[in-house]
């Protein structure tokens, strides 16, 4: 049976591994390569790396460290951050990453999604959507590391990204990210019901019940985990870890 | 030494990397003279069936590959699209395949189901026939799959494992010296290493 993918989503700022709370203040986690080795040994399903400030700081993806990561990893890999043209996407896909994650560039230049998808297949393109709920309960799409509002309805944007050729949607709740309070099941379900491609729910995971909740009730095909994999507990020190896989499978039944 | 055929499709670095980790020497090549000397071949592949067959034909390697596999009968392992290329045809386009195994490549087609296409993620394989390629596989053995098409062998005796996704499809096949695996061993942790080690020992 196909297993629900549980994907560590690791945040980079250039060469530092960090963890943010609600896209804002962040803590340092440590050395990326040590962390990668631990996840390799833990045999995680897949790894996602996002250089969260690359676009905002106008940096290109750091090919050197992506190379180091790809050489260490025997699992599927995705990378996002600063990918704004075809050639850079091609370079990342050629060094051992299976997927590129596109967010801001999709809003500025939607054809980029189509170009990469046509050339490498839809499975190589993950479209990332960051969403925030306003005080009236309405969801808005944000780009550029959550700093710029993108005037598009969330589900319409997801459908459009699918039409453009995206193979997956990485849906991140800015309100939940780094909070340990659980995923935003409501928006995940809306988006997952609107598209035919897999939706990866991201932002807010604090325990195994949260994972089961968004898979069962939010129709998520996969989940992204952050804080709970790099901290001992909420508010405590850094400890790279992974929840009990048998326990996850039991909860997902 | 395992000769990895470079015909211009797919990321060969990851495959070579895993062989390196398990201590098996490899070369990546598209040189006819190197392939002539090969003892064992690995046929990788990511992308579209037609484009891959076109590249193989254009590369001028077809003749030497046929000779090594069909006449000298050296072991060959096709992975992912490389497995599909072993078959005679694909519903993805009109190009014939290499035709080394009596099989066809079909498209997943789930009209009354919420199953997503491609079949993407970790899935288990169920051994149906013994072979050195799948030695030491157990119920926990799982692999990373990404594909929208699957291979259907014409002869049941060519099927080593099946995998369930909407239907039971052939995930590892073998006909004499010709092997195919639908998943990505190079992205499947110790399970992939086990498969590649087994292939290296054949």
Which helices and strands, and how do they pair?
The complex is a heterodimer of chains A (253) and B (202).
Chain A: E1 5-13, E2 16-20, E3 26-30, H1 32-41, E4 47-51, H2 63-72, E5 77-80, H3 86-94, E6 99-102, H4 104-108, H5 111-120, E7 125-133, E8 139-143, E9 148-150, H6 154-164, E10 168-173, H7 185-194, E11 199-202, H8 208-216, E12 222-225, H9 227-230, H10 245-252
Parallel strand pairs in A: 1-4, 1-12, 4-5, 5-6, 6-7, 7-10, 10-11, 11-12
Antiparallel strand pairs in A: 1-2, 2-3, 7-8, 8-9
Helix pairs in contact in A: 8-10
Chain B: E1 2-5, H1 12-21, E2 26-29, H2 32-37, E3 41-43, H3 49-59, H4 62-71, E4 76-79, H5 81-85, E5 89-90, E6 103-107, E7 119-124, E8 126-127, E9 142-147, E10 149-153, E11 159-165, E12 167-175, E13 178-181, H6 189-201
Parallel strand pairs in B: 1-2, 1-3, 3-4, 4-13, 5-6
Antiparallel strand pairs in B: 6-10, 7-9, 8-11, 11-12, 12-13
Description of the structure:
The complex is a heterodimer of chains A (253) and B (202). Helix content of chain A is 34%, strand content 25%. Chain A contains 10 helices and 12 strands. Chain A has helices spanning 32-41, 63-72, 86-94, 104-108, 111-120, 154-164, 185-194, 208-216, 227-230, 245-252, and strands at residues 5-13, 16-20, 26-30, 47-51, 77-80, 99-102, 125-133, 139-143, 148-150, 168-173, 199-202, 222-225. Chain A has an 8-stranded parallel beta barrel with strand order 1-4-5-6-7-10-11-12, surrounded by 5 helices. In chain A, β11, α8 (208-216) and β12 form a beta-alpha-beta unit. Chain B is an alpha/beta fold. Chain B has 6 helices and 13 strands. Chain B has helices at 12-21, 32-37, 49-59, 62-71, 81-85, 189-201, and strands spanning 2-5, 26-29, 41-43, 76-79, 89-90, 103-107, 119-124, 126-127, 142-147, 149-153, 159-165, 167-175, 178-181. An 8-stranded mixed beta sheet of chain B has the order 2-1-3-4-13-12-11-8. A 3-stranded mixed beta sheet of chain B has the order 5-6-10. Chain B has a two-stranded antiparallel sheet with strand order 7-9. Chain B is globular, with a radius of gyration of 16 Å. The A-B interface holds A 1-5, 40, 43, 45-46, 70-71, 74-76, 93-96, 98, 120-123, 167-168, 196-198, 221-222 and B 11, 13-14, 17-18, 21, 46-48, 116, 118-124, 142, 144, 146, 164-165, 184, 186-190, 192-193.
């Amino acid at each position: 049976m196909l297993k629900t993918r549980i994907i560590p989503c690791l945040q980079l700022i250039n060469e530092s591994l960090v963890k943010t709370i609600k896209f804002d203040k962040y803590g340092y986690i440590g050395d990326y390569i040590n962390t990668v080795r631990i996840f390799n040994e833990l045999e995680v399903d897949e790894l996602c790396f996002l250089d969260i400030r690359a676009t905002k700081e106008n940096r290109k993806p750091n090919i050197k460290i992506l190379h180091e990561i790809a050489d260490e990893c025997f699992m599927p890999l995705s990378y996002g951050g600063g990918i704004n043209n075809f050639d850079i996407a091609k370079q990342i896909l050629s060094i051992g990453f299976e997927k590129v994650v596109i967010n801001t560039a999709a809003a500025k230049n939607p054809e980029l999604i189509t170009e990469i998808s046509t050339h490498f297949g839809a499975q190589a393109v993950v479209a990332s959507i960051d969403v925030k709920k306003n005080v009236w309960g309405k969801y808005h799409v944000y780009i550029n590391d959550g700093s710029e509002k993108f005037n598009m309805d969330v589900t319409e944007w997801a459908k459009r990204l699918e039409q453009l050729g995206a193979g997956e949607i990485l849906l991140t709740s800015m309100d939940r990210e780094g909070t340990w309070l659980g995923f935003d099941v409501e928006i995940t379900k809306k988006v997952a019901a609107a598209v035919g491609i897999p939706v990866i729910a991201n932002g807010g995971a604090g325990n195994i019940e949260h994972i089961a909740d968004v898979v069962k009730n939010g129709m998520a095909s996969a989940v992204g985990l952050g804080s709970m994999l790099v901290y001992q507990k909420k508010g405590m020190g850094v400890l790279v870890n992974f929840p009990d896989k048998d326990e996850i499978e039991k909860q997902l039944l | 030494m395992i000769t990895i055929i470079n015909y211009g499709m797919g990321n060969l670095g990851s495959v070579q990397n895993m062989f390196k980790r398990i201590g098996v020497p490899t070369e990546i090549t598209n040189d006819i003279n190197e392939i002539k000397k090969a003892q064992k071949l690995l046929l990788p592949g990511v992308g579209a069936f037609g484009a891959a067959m076109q590249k193989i034909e254009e590369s001028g390697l077809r003749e030497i590959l046929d000779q090594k596999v069909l006449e000298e009968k050296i072991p060959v392992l096709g992975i992912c699209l490389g497995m599909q290329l072993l078959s005679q045809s694909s519903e993805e386009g009109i190009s014939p395949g290499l035709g080394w195994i009596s099989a066809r490549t079909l498209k997943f087609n789930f009209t009354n189901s919420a199953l997503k296409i491609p079949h993407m993620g970790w899935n288990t394989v169920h051994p149906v026939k013994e072979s050195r390629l799948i030695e030491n596989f157990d119920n926990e053995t799982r692999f990373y799959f990404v594909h929208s098409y699957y291979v259907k062998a014409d002869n049941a005796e060519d099927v080593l494992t099946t995998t369930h996704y909407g239907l039971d499809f052939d995930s590892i096949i073998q006909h004499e010296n010709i092997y195919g695996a639908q998943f990505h061993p190079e992205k499947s942790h110790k399970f992939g290493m086990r498969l590649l080690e087994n292939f290296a020992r054949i």
